[in-house]
Amino acid sequence: MRLTVLGCYAATPRTLTNPTSQVLQINNHMVLIDCGEGTQVELRRHKIKFSRINHIFISHLHGDHFFGLPGFISTMRLLGREKELHVYGPKGIKEAITLLLKLGDSWTNYPLLFHELSSKESELVFEDTKISVTTIPLDHRIYTNGFLFREKVGKRKLNIAATEEYGIDKAYYQNIKNGKDITLDNVEVIKNSELTFDPPKPKSYAFCSDTIYDESLASKIKDVDVLYHESTFLESEAELATKTKHATAMQAAKVAKAANVKTLVLGHYSTRYKSIELFKEEASTIFENVLLADDGKSFDF
Ligand SMILES: [Zn+2]
User: Fold this and answer.
1) CA 141 to ligand 1 center in whole angstroms
2) 36 CA distance to ligand 1 centroid (A)?
3) Nearest Cα residue to 241 out of 206, 275, 270, 277
4) What pLDDT was estimated at residue 188?
5) What's this model's pTM, rounded to 2 decimal places?
6) What average pLDDT does the segment 70-94 reach?
């Protein structure tokens, strides 16, 4: 699982910082999470092929989380995209995007499919054999969801040394990977566990931005491998955080601790602070494994 942060600062694009956008590579999928201004430029900078993105998840309709989307959708047309593009986001997103396309007489020549969200309960929004994606309802100034991405358990891994030792024909490999036992010469049964290794443990990633501090969030993201939690402010601005329905680094750490996650990634920083290291310092007083998102940074989990 690889997370590439294209932008992770609050409010406005600036010379050296971008608003929220991330690319998550998970079990052969490459999904885009939020699409602030500058997303296309950053995708190009990091040599991420636009055509690999088939699913876009938008948390909410504040500009710093989706103003890059109409441009991205238009560029896909110019690049000759033919595949479906799926957009998951709050109710209203379809109207907003299609109005822009309509006024510019620039309809897509590929299927653009909107999956509008309005539930206040968590719901499964995408699932295939590789991953599942469920919403994480958040409490922000407007309707907002985080997203929980989970890998499905993969196939068992072949123990080549063992299959060769038993002289098993390669034609049986697929069955073995699917968990079947093998019968040799119609007599001897070789247990699957002797021929395979357990598949890698499936990974999970929870994206939670923007949100007020809400410790009940922890129950929805229990034991995930990686939690990205917004930390727009430091505790010194806790009052402002509550007023604007954002969180502080310490509050993000409290959620991470209560949810027993493995790694906390902080982001959505207000640009009022001199250094983002301050966010890590503050969160680390509560939770051990804290990483700082930054524009252009990739993490392998
Ligand atoms: Zn917001």
Assistant:
1) 7
2) 11
3) 270
4) 86
5) 0.92
6) 97
What share of the chain in percent tops pLDDT 70? Answer: 100
Q: What spatial distance separates the first Cα and last Cα of the chain, rounded to whole Å?
A: 5
Q: Which residue has the tokens 């804290």?
A: 290
- For 170, the 3-state DSSP assignment is helix
User: In this predicted structure, what is the pLDDT of residue 102?
Assistant: 93
Angle at 115 between CA 112 and CA 116, to 5 degrees: 125
Mean pLDDT of 228-241: 98
Residue 175 CB-half CA count within 13 A:
12
Ligand 1 mean position to 295 CA, how many Å? 18
pLDDT, tens digit (0-9, with 9 covering 90-100), for 174-223: 999 989 999 988 788 999 999 999 998 999 999 999 999 999 999 999 99
282 SS3 class: helix
Catalytic residue check, 225: no
| Residue 229 Cα to ligand 1 middle (Å) | 13
Question: Is residue 11 over pLDDT 90?
Answer: no
Reading the block at residue 19, the tokens are 């608003």
Query: Whole-angstrom Cα distance, residue 37 to residue 201?
Result: 35
Cα 70 to averaged position of ligand 1 atoms, centre (Å)? 18
Indicate which residue of 64, 105, 185, 198 is catalytic.
64
- Tell me the sheet residues that pair with 208: 229
Alpha-carbon distance 205 to 262, whole Å? 10
* Segment 136-156, tens digit of pLDDT: 999 999 999 999 999 999 888
What protein residues have CB closer than 5 angstroms to ion ligand 1? 62, 210
Distance (angstroms) between ligand 1 centre and the Cα of 75 equals 25
